[in-house]
Every structure is written in structure tokens, then in C-alpha cells.
Amino acid sequence: MINDSKRVNLSRRRVLCAGGAALFARLVSGLLGGESAAWAETLSGLVPEVDRLAVRVVIDSYQLAIAPNMKVGNVEVERVGMLPAGRSLLGEFGLSLHAQSYRRTETRNMLVDFGFTSEALNNNLAVLGIVPKDIDALVLSHGHYDHFGGLAGFLQQYHGQLRSELPLYLGGEECFCTREWIIGKPQDFGYLDRRALAQANLKVTYAEGPSVVADHAFTTGYIPNASFEKVLAPTRMTVGVHDGIGCYPDKLPAEKRTAHVIPDDFQHELATCFNVKERGLVVLTSCSHRGVVNTVKRAMEVSGVNKVHAVMGGFHLAPQPDDYIRETVVALKEINPDYVIPMHCTGEKFIEIVQKEMPDKFIRSYNGSRYSFGA
Questions:
Q1: pLDDT by residue (tens digit) across 70-81?
Q2: Do 54 and 372 contact (CB within 8 A), yes or no?
């Protein structure tokens, strides 16, 4: 396995050696069917700091139209409320988040993950008033269909309206591998469509190590297994490319290049993070296959920021036994975030326990909700 220092040093060399990086990008672009490819700006020194951050839930599976707006501590929570007849947010088993950050006169808009279907994504963006042409960056947390399924249809819907060479950050070539769902009867779990990315003129931006996103955010890059948490692998991936679909073996970690079908270990999974002035880190975990505790600790490690303001996203605890969930709550209490906002694949048992154990920190999330952090 490639260790973290080697990943970061490798990425830094790719960024600094401009001539080699340009050549590499051209070669990869040809291999990937035409989409522009690049390596993300590697973290060096302090992580970016923003004055304010607002995170909107674009897609999740649970919604309560009569939930009121509220303030929890210093977090403003805006609910969508009841919509006019004929309009509705769509919920599904998937996740998509819109992050809007502010630093002095600068504003950045990012879309993190894209839900299961483009029908839900495009509908909800319109209902929530999120304008695709204003998006500065896209981030894909990992190669599962419930996180990228809406992307191709989103790109088709807004073809010509998105900025040229809009960057799509992802944690590695494994995002492109074809997958099967293996719980119960094995079934096809889709693939990330390279051709759709090329047609939309996206710049595929590899962020295998900790990387800066749109000047305001950063990704964790590779998340090591450093706690009690076990990687959940409900899928297996196929290595190789057929008719332009799949992942190129020589772009994978060395130990996977000669494999054919292997269980997912989510080496490519990443979280998206913001350092909010006078508040601390806001960590968007997305799905936490590598463990929510591992994810948050990785964000702290790479940023050098020990204060965690909020942890939000999928925690992937729904299939886990009660003892494991309780151990997770204990570990989160030790990290001591100001707020815990679970979504997507977290599961009701965790919500039940964290409400009891961390009542002043828990915020229930609904589809469409907006959370504002900072002054």
C-alpha cells in the first residue's frame, strides 16, 4: 500500500514539475477518451481559511416539510418548508451537498457528490435555487453509484452552461472501476462515465493526497485505517477497461494492477473540509466507508487544526452492530466536535444514541436543509 508521505510527495512532484505534469495530463487525456486531466494542488503549509460557510443538502433520503427553521448554538438551520402545489424535493438513497464559502469579497460554490439519479439532482437544484453556472468545483467522494449516479444527466442538462474545464476532484482511478453490489444477490452497480465527463469538458483532477479545492476548501486524500473502525465493503470492483468503460490498471495502486475482481477497500475515498475562521473544521464525510472517526482524524492531521466545528454527511453505520456504533459515539465524544449532523447511510441507531449521549451537539438533517457556520 502507498503510504501517506509517498502519496503527498508524489503529488507534489507532479504539481511542481510543470513540464512533466503537462505531458502527463496530455497522455492521460488521450487514455481517458478526451477529458482534460490534472493533479490537484497539494496542501503545503496552512490550509485555506474561510469567514463563513453554508452547506445545503441537495439530496438525501429523508424530508419533513413542516420542520421549522431554527438556531442550534451558533449554527443557523434553514429548512425548506412546504413548497407550492406541483413542486417537491425528491429524496432517494444517495447524497449530494452544495457548499458555499465566503472569504472577504470572494465566494466559492462547490457541489459534493451527485445522488443516485439525475432526475432528483436536477429537480432539487432547481427547487433550491442553486445555479449550476456559478459552480466553481465538483467533488466526488468515492466510486459508488449513489454518489455519482446523477452526474452524467446533470452534465447533459446543463451542457454549455457550466464553466469551461470545470474541475472534478476525485481520489483516484478506482472511481472509474465498474462495480457489483454483493450484499444478497450480486447485481450491477454501474460505472462513472468517462465519455460524459469528456463531452462536458470537465477537468478530471486527481486528489490522491491532501489537496486544495477552489482556494477555499481541502480534501483529505487517502484516509488510513488508524482506529478500531473496519472498512465496509458492500461492493467489488473489476479492474480493466472495455470499450472505454472501467479503470486503467496502470493508474491503480501497484498491488491492484494485476487483480481482476477485488472487494472494495475504498483507498480512493476522500472527505471535503473547510477551516472556518474562529470556529474550526467542518468535515463533509460523504459516506465514511473508511470510518467516520478515521475520516475526521485524517482531516485534523493534514490540516493541523485540532478544533472540529462540525461533522456532517453519511457515517455508514446502518449495517453495524450496536456495540460498534456505541464505540463510534465514544470516539466522536473524544474528538469533541461542536456539532454532529448525520445523513444518508448513518442509520437510526446512531441517531438514537447520539441524541442521548450528545444532545447539545446533535442536529437532525432533512433533505433540502441549509446549515450556516461562521460569523
A1: 999 999 999 999
A2: yes
